[in-house]
Design a protein that fits this description.
By secondary structure, this protein is mainly alpha-helical. Helix content is about 40%, strand content about 5%. α15 runs antiparallel to α16. The structure holds protoporphyrin IX containing FE.
């Protein structure tokens, strides 16, 4: 599917629901809050009372205590700190799916997929932990869910810990919009930061691995989610503005851009913060358009590759070899999310060792996503193609040895 076709599909919902609004808004200013060239073409509606997210009463911020799991995802940590997820950080598929939609306006398809994948790959099939141990939570999920070259969290083999948040990465992002009065960390800013973080992993993490699912889908989502979910929506900017205060609140950051402090997992939903409108839910097809937007300026994002054990040795892995000829590089570039999801579908049986019957719920959410995108299946993957990547391991755990030759800016 071309980017244009995906955009048209995403817009169909708006046009049907708000025909007059759409034509009126077509004449708006050329520089939209989300960044030039990024969806939506016309702003979504804004409904203050429906979009305000409560941070008081039962949803007041309560920091995690001893025994409460928190992990590398600021969105999940914030929902647990505010009681939208169980405070202990352990929740069922239904709880994750509902909370992501209620608090952030995530599409039902994306929320169900993320929640079910967590339960099958890092949980007990029905529930999972937002921190946890290897095999029992996304904290232990390096290379099955968690990935290298994340926005603000560390590369596992570069820092020996995937939770930590190097100040240099936070300062770098904050300084990309250094004037607090106008700052807006939108898709245009984030695609530049995405490319920078990829290149930093190449030049600093000897074991950098950019995988078919964790790299090309999860790691990309980690960047698009920053603007798509954290941005504060308003009648003036219904797509949202992500200013410094809101970004810092969600990421548990304080201090100045050049001297950032990070308070661990005290991620907070800001007061007076407005989520996405329900007709503007962030779905898997919408996410695909953002991935294609990112790769317009940095095409390497739509391919698999790794360093070979030393920095600056990044090489691509043939997707044709990896998929036994099912996908060409051109097909992957045209629809990287199809490739990533089909790869995940083919990989999950060996990744989990579970019988087909227990994989049914994941197979079902995957197949509804891939049939919506009209993806070509992968009959069998050839994981041997990844043996050239020393950073590729099934379960790295939340801590690991720092790789020889790793560079840690701060
Ligand atoms: C069930 C739903 C979710 C799951 C399973 C999930 C899982 C994850 C995982 C595994 C990572 C690590 C990615 C990496 O290594 O780069 C991550 C990162 C991230 N997630 Fe989530 N997440 C979910 C929902 C959300 C929501 C609702 C938000 C809303 C703000 C969010 C925002 C982020 C961001 C911004 C990062 C990047 C953190 C960084 O800077 O390193 N996620 N998430």
């Amino acid at each position: 599917m071309t980017r244009l076709a995906v955009v048209a599909a995403c817009l169909a919902g708006y046009a049907a629901a708000f025909p007059r609004l759409e034509s009126h808004l077509l004449s708006r200013a050329a520089a939209p809050p989300q960044g030039a060239g990024a969806l939506p073409v016309t702003p979504p509606p804004f409904d203050a009372s429906a979009q305000l997210v409560s941070t008081s009463g039962q949803y007041a911020f309560v920091p995690p205590g001893p025994g409460d799991a928190r992990g590398e995802c600021p969105g999940l940590n914030a929902m647990a700190n505010h009681g939208y997820l169980p405070h202990n950080g352990y929740a069922t598929i239904a709880q994750f799916t509902e909370a992501c939609q209620t608090v952030f306006g995530m599409g039902a398809d994306l929320a169900a997929f993320l929640a079910v994948y967590g339960a099958v790959v890092d949980g007990d099939l029905t529930a999972w932990s937002i921190g946890g141990l290897p095999h029992t939570g996304i904290g232990g999920s390096h290379n099955d869910y968690e990935a290298d070259s994340s926005p603000l969290h560390a590369d596992l083999y570069q820092y020996g810990n995937l939770y930590t948040l190097p100040k240099s990465q936070a300062s770098q992002l904050l300084n990309m919009q250094s004037d607090a009065s106008t700052a807006n960390y939108n898709l245009e800013v984030l695609r530049e930061f995405r490319a920078t973080r990829f290149q930093q992993s190449v030049s600093e993490n000897p074991k950098f691995f950019y995988g078919p699912f964790t790299g090309m889908a999860v790691s990309q989502a980690a960047f698009t989610f920053i603007y798509r979910f954290m941005a504060n929506k308003s009648s003036e900017a219904p797509e949202g503005i992500l200013n410094q205060d809101v970004l810092k609140s969600f990421y548990a950051l304080s201090g100045t851009n050049d001297d950032v402090s990070w308070s661990g997992c005290h991620n907070r939903i800001p007061d007076n913060w407005y989520k996405r409108n329900t007709v503007d839910a962030y779905t898997i097809p919408y996410f695909l358009t953002d991935v294609l937007y990112f790769s317009e300026t940095f095409p390497q994002l739509n391919g698999v590759g790794c360093n070979n054990g030393s920095v600056n040795t990044y090489d691509t892995i043939s997707v044709s070899t990896l998929t036994n000829g099912a996908y060409t590089a051109a097909e992957v570039a045209a629809n990287p999310i199809c490739f990533a999801l089909e790869y995940a579908a083919a990989d999950v049986p060996s990744l989990t060792g579970l019988p087909t019957a227990e994989l049914g719920p994941l197979a079902s959410v995957l197949s509804s996503a891939t049939s919506e995108l009209k993806c070509k299946p992968i009959a069998a993957i050839n994981k041997g193609a990844l043996e050239a990547c020393p950073g590729f391991t099934l379960y790295g755990g939340p801590t690991a040895p720092v790789a020889k030759g790793a560079i840690q800016p701060s």
